[in-house]
């Protein structure tokens, strides 16, 4: 009926659409010029931030891509003078879209936090800002989305959220197609109304009746008003839209404006004789309902009196769609909480607007052992737990406090209006009480424990980046110190974090660039003095003659990735050395190897170790694994027990290292397959002079004797200690008295000198 396409909102007749676009050509050209200028400026500013990738492989992707976008924006800007028609505007804008989308696709391959934001925002820019036709808007937005998704998802490994991300982007684009079509329709309806208004004004001189009929027939609300706002005429559409069947007479348009400053601004523009187009405001109907509207007004003269002709386009539904899309972009789909982008923006706003530097708090909350819930109860139970945590956090906090899901099993809270730091404790206690209660899921209790990292503004950071980083450090220490607790950030935590980070960086460098290998310290039978085996200790000789010791990278051994990688290198080195000694006819007894909780929690550890021994033709009994009691603590104790039982059944001996120094429990000796107890050197070192140490050593030896467990004393440094330990029934000794850790070549010479060689196998 109105000649508009139901799909695109554009005129069905190409000639009419061309006329519409030709009239808007100056505006389209101006928008394109502004777009290219802003693109060049903003990407230049972003280029400065791209230097944070310096030293990484992504730096050589980000900087060329960013420079390409900047240069191309400048080139397109220089081509603006060739925009003599709307098709030429479309062609240049399309060229800019193609290059920009490809360049940004390389940028989002970094998968940084802002990359997801760009995935949403750049297609929205192509939809809403680029001055092209419906085909250009939708094609550019969809093409940009596809290119950005390819750039974001192409680096391995693929994100587990890829299907959800694609569906979310599809939902976003469907909404934008509807919004663009609606906006096109409204613009053309407004343009049509303007055409009718112009025709009516021209025909007024010839026929008032014709003008009246046309005025009343216009489908958009039209008003004729005097300069003081009093209404001369309303067309039928205006009466239907704003009188809504009520017996109400609209005498003055001032009655309809909701926001008085906006009304004053509009009246000032009109009284200055300015043409008004797409002026957005809120209007009140006769029934009190509020509507969002776009106004366009032109001066006319009626009976020699200057007036205004104003058309009104209702955009209430469009605004609701925009708000809905904004909520989707700022809300977590699963829990309904604010998402990471919303939280970061809220913290930025709170720290900027904080009067007198009032105290705020940022809490990062991480669910302990969430992966175990997913693995044992299913992902539906994990989702239910996340939703329950979201609801409990809402109930635990005060009105006005912001709760967000940062992603995965991590939540965040922004606390405002804190009188002092002491006010935090009751809030943290309330959060713990709410969150630590078990969740009943389909008749099955699911334990819920959380660790919390806390930072205070301005004490622990001046901006959102510092506050979140320091809260993350506090959370890291909470999880590494028993979990299920809240820790407030302090300078000592940052020092510890930096120290551990340096260790991890050094370990990565060692694995990538150096040649770590096992050195061996002899174990001696105290009754015979014979070598019964060795302990393999991590060493990394460097080109400058120094040797990197385990203490230099201590944090790496418990790291879930670096720890197993280091242990893997040690296993390969030990097996290679054992094969060489076997082939040389040397009997070495056994080799003890230290393993951490990170190794035992690795599902492939047992199979890999036994498979490598079998490939080398070595019996499992040649390996002895040393563990500390820390691996028995926490919720993975059952899994660790299963791993140790498998190893013990295969013939691998298990030694309990550093016995008595940490969380010693006699139940561990009964519950787990412990073959050997190692007495820590701290007790052995002073047993001659410290009666307490001597008593501890005697107690451990008597306990081991009663349980039938062999004992090894570490740190033996003199013959008096040897005599004491031998008299107490200790089986083996290890320490500088017998020999320090040595390279494998020195061990070969040591065994040969002591006459322990046997004929090589034929």
Question: Could you characterize what this model shows?
Answer:
The protein is of the alpha/beta class and 762 residues long. Helices cover 51% and strands 17% of the residues. It contains 26 helices and 21 strands. It has an 8-stranded mixed barrel with strand order 13-14-16-17-18-19-20-21. A 5-stranded antiparallel beta sheet has the order 2-1-5-4-3, sandwiched between helices. The longest helix has 43 residues.
Uncertain residue segments: 756-762
Largest sheet: 8 strands, mixed, barrel
The residue-averaged pLDDT reads 80
Sheet-strand content, in percent, reads 15-25%
Q: Using only CA atoms, what is the Rg?
A: 38 Å
How many distinct helices?
26
Instruction: Give the strand order, joined by hyphens, for the main sheet.
Output: 13-14-16-17-18-19-20-21
Shape: elongated
What percent of the residues sit in helical stretches (DSSP H or I)? 40-55%
Q: What is the tally of beta strands?
A: 21
What is the rounded distance between the termini? 99 Å
